[in-house]
């Protein structure tokens, strides 16, 4: 399993920004291959081997506020 860790210890990084980052990772990890034909997948060079990280750890100044902004 792959884990991505981000340390956002700068006070300029808000809880909302951390939540937006996490949402972006979730959206990027979505797999659209289910609805692609085999031919379209082969033409794009997508062999199905790239996998998103299984865990995203974000360390920030206010984790409670970041979690509330994410949900």
Word description of this protein:
The chain is of the alpha+beta class. The chain contains 3 helices and 2 strands; from the N terminus they run E-H-H-E-H. The protein has a two-stranded parallel sheet with strand order 1-2. Helix 1 crosses helix 3. The radius of gyration is 16 Å and the shape is elongated. The relative contact order is 0.33.
Strand content: 15-25%
Span between termini: 24 Å
| Broad shape | elongated
* SS content category: alpha+beta
Quaternary structure state of the chains depicted: single chain
Helix content: 40-55%
Rg estimate, integer Å = 16 Å
E-strand count: 2
Task: Tell me the major beta sheet.
Answer: 2 strands, parallel
Q: Spans with pLDDT under 50 lasting ≥5 residues?
A: none
> Major sheet: order of its strands?
1-2
What is the mean predicted local confidence, pLDDT? 78
Q: SSE order in H/E notation?
A: EHHEH
Instruction: Give the count of helical stretches.
Output: 3
Short description:
The chain has 71 residues and is α+β, with helices and mostly antiparallel strands. The protein is built from three helices and two strands; from the N terminus they run βααβα. Helix content is 41%, strand content 17%.
